Amino acid sequence: MKTTAAVLEGPGKAWEIQQLDLLAPGPGEVLIANRFAGLCHSDAHLKHLGAMGTYPLVGGHEGSGVVEAIGAGVDRVQVGDHVVFSFIPSCGMCRYCATGRSYLCDSGANAGTGLMADGTHRFERDGQGVGGFCALGTFSERMVVSQRSLVKIPQDVPLDVAALLSCGVPTGWGAAVNAAEVAPGDIVVVFGAGGIGINAVQGARHAGASHIIVVDPVLAKREFASELGATRATGDPAEAAAWAQELSAGTGADAVIVTTGVLDAATTGQAIACTGKGGRVAVVGLSDDPMDIAIALPAGAVTYNVLRIQGVLFGQCNPQSDIPLFLRLWAEGRLELGRLITRRYRLEEINEGYADQDAGRLIRGLIEFS
Question: Which domain of life does this protein belong to (predicted)?
């Protein structure tokens, strides 16, 4: 079978639209017709993989689609089912899955390599394997994935809305609710108001935060964050720190969530400056080379103020249980999804989409497949 996909050939390259061969689904695998794919900043980082992965690579880890065929032994989905993708497969058997931490499942170890769990590829070109990011590759018309990477959803849920539940919503929401453990009355600062940060705002609001301060250089994003629950918004981290002091009678924020598209040492320092004694700093953002960034932590402040620095992956969510939860909240009007979609693109417009993202024009862009 042939499929058209957006492929990265190497570091710093633009996305190339190529026709690839797609192998048939093997045991436990599923053929998916993709309907929507989210433009997440994590895919932009693929241009700078460094030690994290290999090329060529089909990008995309967020999205939704329809099951077209199943391999032997598949029992989680059937042909015709609508599904959302989990960028970390869940085996259900490793120590992490068995203790309710499927976001740490051992099956996710091959994310940057583009390999399936058996060490092989499902995309090929001229007989040579082409990787699929996170054992997916949602920037392709079709893909073959493990059933462990799928979450079945009701067929009356719009697939564009559902696509957001594949990464951006759970990562941001969970950063606030699960990782930062926002509690009623908390003062929260969120750095970044893009596809992750805006959902951290929604999560903090849901958890009962009394004040939510957003830091983002883009005015339109600050305004949108205010519509979804932010109580104050600024482009100046120092102003955010001053507000946190003012609102807390001098103690600082209870929780700070860092969701910036490109993480650097300066941002983490600014986040710590906002945080009060006993506070939590949840770090979601990545650098362009996640294996090669050093974050300077003021040891005295961390120790004497008893700060907790918490890494965040998938919002510490478990997709099989949390995606249905998000759908219920959306249906009840307690979670905004549709307005998060800023613009839709054809696959051939993917480089334009990422240019718009870099310019701060998007909350979330979607590739729409016909």
Answer: Bacteria
Q: What share of the chain is helix, strand, coil (3-state, %, to 5)?
A: 35, 25, 40
Tokens representing 355 are 């240019």
Copy the structure tokens of residue 220. 């339109």
pLDDT tens digits, 171-197? 999 999 999 999 999 999 999 999 999
Q: Is 296 exposed, middle or buried (0-12, 13-18, 19+ CB in 10 A)?
A: exposed
- For 115, what's the count of Cα atoms within 13 Å in the CB-facing half-sphere? 11
Tell me the per-residue pLDDT of 108-147, one tens digit each, with 9 for 90 and over. 877 778 899 889 999 999 999 999 999 999 999 999 999 9
Fold classification of 172-312 is Rossmann fold (3.40.50)
Alpha carbon of 97 to those of 76, 88, 174, 317: distances in Å? 17, 11, 17, 11
Domain 2-166+337-368 has CATH 3.40.50.20: no
Q: What pTM, to 2 d.p., does this model score? A: 0.95
